[in-house]
Amino acid sequence: MDELLNQLSDDAKDFWMPKKISRIPPPTAVEFYRDYVSKNIPVIITNAINHWPALQKWTDEYFDEAIGNEIVTVDVTPTGYGDAVLTLENKKTQVFVQPEERNMTFSKFLEIYHDKQFDGVPYLSHQNDSLREQFPQLVHDVDRVIDFSAEAFGNMPEAVNLWIGDDRAVSTMHKDHYENMYCVVRGLKHFILLPPSDVAFLHETEYPTTRYVHKSNVDQFDPSTLIQSKNPNWFIHMPPEGRETTPWIPVDPVAIDTDKFPKAKHIQPLEVVLEEGEMLYLPSLWYHRATQLCDTVSVNYWHDMEFDAKYVYFNFLHVTTTVHGGHNGIFIFNSMASAKLYETMVSYKSSFTPPKPVEQVWNFSPPVHPRILKHQILRKVPPTSNTPIPTIAVPGARKVVEAPKTMPSYQSKVGLLELRRQVEERLAQDRNEDLQGRTEWWKQQ
Amino acid sequence: MDELLNQLSDDAKDFWMPKKISRIPPPTAVEFYRDYVSKNIPVIITNAINHWPALQKWTDEYFDEAIGNEIVTVDVTPTGYGDAVLTLENKKTQVFVQPEERNMTFSKFLEIYHDKQFDGVPYLSHQNDSLREQFPQLVHDVDRVIDFSAEAFGNMPEAVNLWIGDDRAVSTMHKDHYENMYCVVRGLKHFILLPPSDVAFLHETEYPTTRYVHKSNVDQFDPSTLIQSKNPNWFIHMPPEGRETTPWIPVDPVAIDTDKFPKAKHIQPLEVVLEEGEMLYLPSLWYHRATQLCDTVSVNYWHDMEFDAKYVYFNFLHVTTTVHGGHNGIFIFNSMASAKLYETMVSYKSSFTPPKPVEQVWNFSPPVHPRILKHQILRKVPPTSNTPIPTIAVPGARKVVEAPKTMPSYQSKVGLLELRRQVEERLAQDRNEDLQGRTEWWKQQ
């Protein structure tokens, strides 16, 4: 296996990864598609957004005046790391922890963002099509779409998001199933990038999904679902419906622990600092760690990716090289390691509530292309060779499955997660006995 | 593993393979690149070569007059199957057998081609840039290049070949490391196609490389290197330098033996019949079986393929799912099965001569891009997980290796094979002790 991984690593460096990320002037749609999108290679585009009013207008004063009273969702964490792997106090249990989400006025966000005494790191990074959904006053300050990219991708953006944060806030290594045009309006954005084939070296693992809660908000939760974090002011919420797990990358490319993650020795990260007025094409499925080097404002456009030959190969590589413990949002103990983890977790927090049986939520219309549903399931649930799960694929390879009535009109990350949840619950219903068995297991805990 | 292969097969059908191969009018270069080349999807182009003089001119009478006295290389076999896996008389040993190559005038070829009493199946299928090299009188009857395809591939043809054969001649399932534009001038060409990811299901195996010899030509060979085939008039020549092996596909998609080749149950071949004036885009690395349904004349253009993300993934899938017994043109017995095969072979033909130590042939200039050399080695020699061969990769991933002085000016199949041989011999020299060990092994046989 080691020889295989060596070859894979060499091949990716020889045939795929650029030695460094180029800076180019705005390409034509054809050049962009041919040299970057089709080849799945990142590139920085300069002088493409110089005409945006945002570059002149978007000062804190302007924001305060234009949208100061608008309600905005802010991600807050004690450490700056939201969507990250966190080791709990017992030093054994690891969880995937999401940021606390707080709704407040934009003025309030600006206040806490600049208040060094504020308890926590605020990051405006809610990826729910935030620019178009939450700040319609700002949309005319940027392009509705990056023309050459939309023409190359063959579709309009699924989501356009606003990002405001500084060097305290970090998005840990992950990938998105989107083509991404990331534009810096103010400040300096720092990315570390790895090609999709490095999935083989990143030790992706399933972690129980949890969320930060500040002490000021604990009254909103059943105390039995909270664990204190290392910071006395911050708690970890493990939801009572706690069947959800999240596959995540524990390797941090700025401090690779090759004793703990030996395969990570193969990675050779590409680093890039985006300056004001620059745009990064971040190709679909590329792994990335992102932060800011100072107070930074950005806008990104997510476009649907193509599910093509590369995607077929990626899935194979992913499931061949990754051991997964969970699917369906329900733990399946296919390895002693993950069972052990969960036992520790349960003993650590014995008040954990078993999940309720899932409800009827599958009532789909209008039709959605099955590849979207399938992709959602695959993203969450790659079956592994030692746990045959024949029903995990959408039944009938070419059968059209209908979408939920409640399906969101855009498929942002949030919308997709909801869609995936519904798809997974439907699949769980389809194998009733299976779910029953697992519900029994939970009841016994 | 079976679950993995199921998923791979489903994914390829859902996300990659067309349900059937489309017929389209000539596309623009951009359309062609975007919809077919980049996606690695075959398509038939109609009305693209209607203006070729060849369509009117290329009768047997015209050939006889224009090139009747030219010397041409003709592939001849007893069965019609050249470049095929053949089971020897003892019913145990299988070899890869190439056609006998005979040089004759074109008039002589036409004579034996139409003579039903002739002992053997003649097939004009020599892929050495034959149209441009052997028949300069004909090149103006066709386009020098298919414009939209050259623009999409970004290069000029490496080789343009002439094919003349009928329903007796078959090219068994194989792939080429080329983009291929295949044009029918007269008759009906029949293809069966499978996507590159089906490498996982095709039971590729290394066979000793042999060649047919008709009894009329046996006086040119050392009798101890010949075995009689099932047909008393035809022999199999096993060269005394017989260290060469060829990886080939034993599965015939028109008669799949799933008892013998269980993984082949996953394949779902696409079938196409090309009519006069039609052109098939046969994408790089697609597996294909080809024959004719009647007397058929064709011209094909081979273009260098792109070594990109898809190629990285393909290599991983190839080495992960295929067991290989040989590399360097020298057997390495990494599985009992292939050792057994070779033992049988040696006992069957005890006069087999051990190979001589390789000679100095590595004296390279001018430089060749290492990816080409590497690709050559990979095509022949994918290292497997249970035989670590650290020196098999071109030493120093980004080091420029120089090309042999004798490197052919075009890289047709023939030229590439020669280049590969030289690269392999150099690598063998680099690990002298290794070669020594194997030479010892041979001497003991």
From TrEMBL, chains A, B:
Family matches, as SUPFAM superfamilies: Clavaminate synthase-like
Pfam families registered for this protein in UniProt: Cupin_8
Highest taxon listed in the record's lineage: Eukaryota
Annotated InterPro entries: Cupin_8, JmjC_dom, RmlC-like_jellyroll
JmjC domain sequence ranges: 124-318
Annotated PANTHER family: BIFUNCTIONAL PEPTIDASE AND (3S)-LYSYL HYDROXYLASE JMJD7, HYPOXIA-INDUCIBLE FACTOR 1 ALPHA INHIBITOR-RELATED
Entry protein name: JmjC domain-containing protein
Lineage, highest ranks first: Eukaryota, Sar, Stramenopiles, Oomycota, Saprolegniomycetes
